[in-house]
Amino acid sequence: MTSKYVAFGAITIFCVACKSITDKPELSSAIPQVAPKSTDKLYPVRIGEKCGYIDVTGKVVIPAQWEFAAEFREGLALVSNDWGNYSEPGMTADFIDYSGKVVVKDILVDDIGLQGFSEGLAPFLQNGKVGFIDKAGKVVIPAKYYCEPGDDQCGCVCEDGAVGEFKNGVTWAKLGHTEILIDRTGKELLKGENVRNASNRYIEGLAPYKKRKLYGYKNLEGKVVIPAKYTFAGEFCEGVSFVTPQGLENQFVYIDKTGKQISDKIFEYPANFSEGFALATYEGFRVIVSKDGKTKRFPPLAGTHYPHFFKNGLFMATITKNDTSKDVFIDQNGEIIAEFEISSPGAFREKISTPFDGHLAEIYCQGENSARWVDRNGKTVWSSKTASK
Fold it and tell me: Per mean pLDDT, which of 146-155, 317-326, 365-374 is the most reliable?
């Protein structure tokens, strides 16, 4: 890990009373509710040896006081002054609200818990096992699942999923050597050897199944929804998946949940839909695909580009321009709206390290161990270089 803070997006302020995790946690009888989105945003920054938070203008609104400061998610952010125990046995951390007030105190986390809350739940460690708490610090799902720090053991969903993250009400875990798909109450929905691979595909209610070397889709009850007739079947995201019909090789079409193709176009290197669009290759060109099957040509990409999804209308990519490479943000019309330093041998290279959350994105400079936050036009609103002086 190159820096001790990460950044994604804030969602909503949620102020509750402080609670601690004890050896005998209280079980919550209420199912946590997913909070609506908010326009409020705060971003973690490192100033000297400590981390704090800035607002969208670059103003420091929560002073730097922690060794670790994670992104705000659903109104709360994980902070800690116990970074030395991050790997083992886990670091003691608090959740703070937008005012910097501690609202959940002294929980134990490792890799599994760093991303914070998703759909009202956050992972925590207890006696080497993983469970989930709500925003009052009450245990909703007891700590009984096995997850090794740094290992992808507890759920990965669609393009933006993460370890221990709930999406559309489900995630996966391991109980002993058995993989389990669970909902937000801890109810076991699926159990078996292949749940880990299937869980990210079930988040929209359908997952591929195999019959005589062909693939179709079943729902959680095991009922066939789309018969096995494809040589490849991906996962559904935003109601669309990509499949390979018989007779094609390394080529794909997009289908809806009834099995109907969204267009007659045949694609290569497809990605899942996000915010109504997907990236794919069509007739030799990288294109943006809309759900009505229409395509728009994408700027020429350089090597590996990342990630393969839109976030708040923008896509991060590395492109080739005038025989040089640049990191850029591209909108859903295929237009470059901001670009960053050209890479060259021996020069420092700026890389986009987080997608836009609607206001700002973080740019990390390799070699300098410095970071800056930029707006949607590429203008710097905060830089670790000037903040540390």
Answer: 365-374
